[in-house]
Amino acid sequence: MSENYVAPNQQRYLRACMVCSIVMTFARFRDEGCPNCEEFLHLQGSPDQIESCTSQVFEGIITLANPNKSWVAKWQRLDGYVRGVYAIKVSGQLPDDVRTSIEEEYRIQYIPRDGSATEAD
């Protein structure tokens, strides 16, 4: 997984997706988009969208090698996502227009990853 390596001088550019909580650099979000959410967030090549749908403020990290078999992935609602590094908590929430779009067009229930809501809400 050397493609996921982040040099120490690049760690200040890390951001976490507000939908799936994957942690990558700003440049990687810009170049590749979010590997889990690109279909509806459209981050690739869009700095404004990256700024509004990812956050530099997150707590803790989890490295998932096999998200489909990991109990931690299930606990964090990450099962089914790609292998990678994920934040435990991501500060901030999606803009209302993006949230409405993913809930109405893509039928995806958005649960903020900042701890403000739970699946039971």
From TrEMBL:
Residues 14-91 form the Spt4/RpoE2 zinc finger domain. GO terms for biological process: regulation of DNA-templated transcription; transcription elongation-coupled chromatin remodeling. The keyword Acetylation does not apply. InterPro entries: RPABC4/Spt4, Spt4, Spt4/RpoE2_Znf, Spt4_sf. One of its GO terms (cellular component) is chromosome, centromeric region. GO terms for molecular function: RNA polymerase II complex binding; zinc ion binding. Pfam families: Spt4. It comes from the Eukaryota. Keywords: Centromere, Nucleus, Transcription. Coiled coil: none annotated. It is found in: Chromosome, Centromere; Nucleus. The keyword NADP does not apply. PANTHER family: SUPPRESSOR OF TY 4 (PTHR12882), TRANSCRIPTION ELONGATION FACTOR SPT4 (PTHR12882:SF1). Belongs to the SPT4 family. The SPT4-SPT5 complex mediates both activation and inhibition of transcription elongation, and plays a role in pre-mRNA processing. This complex seems to be important for the stability of the RNA polymerase II elongation machinery on the chromatin template but not for the inherent ability of this machinery to translocate down the gene. This is Transcription elongation factor SPT4. It comes from Lasiosphaeria miniovina. The lineage of its organism: Eukaryota, Fungi, Dikarya, Ascomycota, Pezizomycotina.
